[in-house]
Amino acid sequence: MPPRMLPEPTPETRHFWEGALKGELLLQRDQATGEVYFPPRPFCPGTGSRDVEVFKASGKAVLWSYVINHRPRPDMGTEPYAIAVVKLAEGPQMMTNIVGCPQTPEALQLDMALEVTFEKMSDTIALPFFKPAGA
Amino acid sequence: MKQKSVAVVGAAETTQMGRIPDVSVIGLHADAALNALADCGLKPSDIDGVACAGISPTDLAHYLGITPTYADGTSVGGCSFMLHVRHAAAAINAGLCTTVLITHGESGKSRVGAGGFGRAPSSLMGQFEMPFGVTSPPTMFTIPVLRYLKTYGLTEEDLAWVSVIQREWAGKNPRASFRDPITVDDVLNSPMIAWPFRLLMCCLVTDGGGALILTSAERARDFKAKPVYVLGTGESVETPLVSQMEDFTSSKAFRVSGKKAFDEAGLKHADVDHLMIYDAFAHLPLYGLEDLGFCKPGEAAAFIRERNTAIGGKLPLNTNGGGLSYMHSGMYGMYALQESVRQLRGTAAAQVPGAKNSVCHGVGGMFGASGTIIFSNEAP
């Protein structure tokens, strides 16, 4: 099996991936307006302000939408698996996988409560996944 | 901006369609271009503007021996050609050039002289989507749909009806890849691709191309084919990441592009005789009908099921069979434009009697971009 395709951080996103490696989900917000945004960038897309800060998110989310992929993806090798978008408690959406839960339409109900969990994939990368809350 | 002084005078697809293992990508561009030039009786030296996506306009101009004063390489996915039409109309109006050739060619099936699909691991898609197992459009474009279905109380069966009714249109088109009738059960029993999407809810993968030639409406009268006038145009982009789409039940790019085109055309929805909505997957006509304002949010599925978009319905939609049944080389927008032009020339295989106004709406990326062209065969 080929090695799993992993992110290659850039200067603008490095803090996010360093946080993930430490088990922290880091988001950014506009210091003036409090607007929270994702994916990372050194300015707020709502205001254009560079006056932004990184903060640790709650890790809580709900299942917003998903598909269950049946097509081969050699570096995953776990088909069928769900590719999900979750809505974070702080507002932004992010793509992820749902773990600790059967990959079926019956088990994966929209709006179910989720919480973040990190899985170390290499020396430098841990991916943020989500699992059913309290599981 | 008013663009009422521009018309399509040449339009053609590649000589072959479907599986073309003996022609490369640039060869498909050239074949379509030569067919469109023949369609309007022009030579490459008559062209002074070029536009294409997938390859560079430099590649195209040099290959065809054109020395343009206008070149547009806008490449935002499958609706790039709608944007090319819009930009060409503006360029002709502004006097940058007089005659624009827009081409598409893609070896989607045979991959002859074609690049790969993929993103650098340092791109936003490479960092924030690819690691979670997306493979290609069937696992990306489809992600918002469960939210749409839940919001409006719809099911997979509503998606299946889109495929069934478009196949009826394809049945009337000798060039369509798939022509045999299908039922909702056939769709719901076809192989699973990415739940809730089955094979028959996904577009084809084929080889082919197409080309358009635009010039001023004044000059258009001198050509042999009936001119097809550009009445209104719109475009927008939203996000390269489907996960970041603002509203999973509606495309912002669709809404912005559609409104711009309707405002510019000064046309009411009731005046539209024919509609093309780029259908890479079965949900796109639902989003398109709603976001363009033909249906209220959540009502497009019933509108289709009740046969309003079918043969004999009040709003014929995707009359070539669409990307689901006609052909889909990767950037399908060119074929939607070709069908609008054929309908307004009165030369379509499944001709809508008396069609005067056609709306042609495209998508690029995974709801990432959009372009809308409103055509008429009546001089504005």
Please outline the helices and strands.
The complex is a heterodimer of chains A (135) and B (380).
Chain A (H helix, E strand, L loop, with lengths): L13 H8 L4 E5 L5 E2 L14 E5 L3 E10 L11 E8 L4 E4 L16 E8 L5 E7 L3
Antiparallel strand pairs in A: 1-2, 1-3, 4-5, 4-7, 5-6, 7-8
Chain B lengths: L5 E8 L11 H16 L8 E4 L4 H8 L5 E3 L7 H15 L4 E9 L16 H5 L16 H8 L3 H15 L13 H5 L3 E4 L1 E2 L8 E10 H4 L7 E10 L14 H14 L8 E4 L6 H8 L8 H6 L16 H4 L7 H13 L11 E8 L4 E8 L4
Parallel strand pairs in B: 2-3, 2-4, 9-10
Antiparallel strand pairs in B: 1-7, 1-8, 4-7, 5-6, 8-11, 10-11
Question: How would you characterize this protein structure?
Answer:
The complex is a heterodimer of chains A (135) and B (380). Helices cover 6% and strands 36% of the residues of chain A. Chain A is mainly β. Chain A has one domain. Chain A has a five-stranded antiparallel β-sheet with strand order 6-5-4-7-8. A three-stranded antiparallel β-sheet of chain A has the order 2-1-3. Chain A is globular and about 45 Å long. The model of chain A has no long low-confidence stretch (mean pLDDT 96). Chain B has 380 residues and is of the alpha/beta class. Chain B has a single domain (6-113, 204-376), classed as Peroxisomal Thiolase, Chain A, domain 1. Helix content of chain B is 32%, strand content 18%. Chain B is built from 13 helices and eleven strands. Chain B has helices at residues 25-40, 57-64, 80-94, 124-128, 145-152, 156-170, 184-188, 217-220, 252-265, 284-291, 300-305, 322-325, 333-345; strands at residues 6-13, 49-52, 70-72, 99-107, 192-195, 197-198, 207-216, 228-237, 274-277, 357-364, 369-376. Chain B has a nine-stranded mixed β-sheet with strand order 3-2-4-7-1-8-11-10-9, with helices on both faces. In chain B, strand 10 and strand 11 (369-376) form a beta hairpin. The two termini of chain B are 15 Å apart. The model of chain B has no long low-confidence stretch (mean pLDDT 95). The interface between A and B is large, with 36 and 36 residues. Strand 4 (60-69) of chain A pairs antiparallel with strand 5 (192-195) of chain B, so a sheet runs across the interface.
